[in-house]
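Running low. Any example?
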Amino acid sequence: MKPVSLHITYRPVHPDRSSGSSRVVDLPFGPVATPVFSLGCEMDATGFSVRLEAHAPLAVQSCKVVLEHAFDRSEMVLLNGYQSWTDTSERPAFSIMRGLIGSPRLSVANWSLDASGDYRFADYSLEPGTRHGWTYATFELDGVFTLLGSLDERSGFTLVATEARRNRVIVSHEPPARIIDAGETVQLCSCAIERGTQREVYDRWLARYGVTARTTVPLCGYTSWYRHYGDIDETKLLDDLAGAADAFAGFDTTGSSKVFQVDDGWCPVGDWDAPRTDRFPNGPAAIARAARDAGFIPGLWMSPFVCERKSRTFAEHRDWLLTDEHGRPVSTGSHWSRHFALDTRNPQVRDAVHEWVGTAMRDWGFGLLKLDFLYAACMLPHDGMNRGELMADAVELLREAAGEDCLLLGCGVPLASTFGIFDYCRVGCDVGLGWNDKPHMRLLHRERVSSRNSVHSTIGRSPLDGRTFGCDPDVVFLRDDVRLTAEQRGILLHAAKELGSVLLTSDDMGRWDEGQRTAYQQALDDMISRRAR
């Protein structure tokens, strides 16, 4: 695999800062010199980079590097999905990636089916072998892996696209979303190419990237979502806590962190400083205190970059919303009463995020925050920043607000933005109470709820576990009042203990029988032992 050509699209910028018409440079990969800019192109057996030096002001619209790669019919390719929930697994090189092609436009618009993925800014095709992913990809043939991975996602997201019928791979790194002034030098692309065993290629890529996981300690415990979904209150959670405490009293959790996490339902989405007093008369702090007294780290779910239509934030702070070129709020999905992105570059929003996170930690006493729907921060380039820059900035805002001691679990987020910054991160879509949802739901987006897809993504992204963060495969079920067979429940449990660092359940743990408790302890032992190696 080697770069063979380079495609740059740019607009010259006039003295009044207006842009001229688009111009294209399409040349063999190598140094380029024009009156407007010079390109420095470097490559060797372990990667390549492209650097631009501007001689006059310009706006770069795209930078694409075309690599030559002879695809084999038996080759398996993994293309990392856009965000946590996006399906990610090894598939035959000539398979198809459908996306939302064929979905009724009215349904897509009505339910914002295109909001949580890359459908608004990435091309999909039904041509076999024409697929794409983000940040990194692996190509496996006869047990030998080639990994193509970005070395810089902070300056912009990197798209890796395959065109197997043409024997080529195209790497597109987001260019700066601002004018590049004369005399300025910017890196347009930097990628590693590693070849060897799976372990070797990930180790070498991430060492060059400079990533180190913040923790290697597995997380175990309880989360309320799949037991109550959004229908939670103080009485229910204290009852759940009593059951979890009873179960964990008989467990050996040495070498792990034990958490009791309150999920969605404790406040209107977006009003993170306004808990539902009818459900929590003593406030969230009462739950946090009870969890700590029972020996758990108290955890709390938040999605700080979105607000729902029925929230106070939406009604009173319309100037906080991210808007498109027509001045319309940017929809991020149809959950709750529909939800919209907050502008994370707005100083008032940034202050609010600091206040929300600080209140949850310092005033209420939560020690872990599950931060969800984070892709909302990078819905569209703005404020002179591209999507990758916006997401990196937003993740750092959260870590800054939380401080170094609070555990952060990311969800619904482009993974590379959290490397080395979050402690844990979801690596698949939500599991369901059934295996693969209803047939008509399988026609939806790549981020849909599916236990089956969650397992496949957990497998596909398992090499990230302990290298970039602790992988969260989502919950395990040991109870039998779900639409999962005993075998399917076993698959979820096996994937979690062998491939991840998070072993949470939403079962009523107090009702577990001896066999269920033994199964959980054995899974936890296996996870702790594996992570300690």
About this structure: The mean pLDDT is 96. DSSP finds eleven helices and 25 strands in the chain. The radius of gyration is 24 Å.
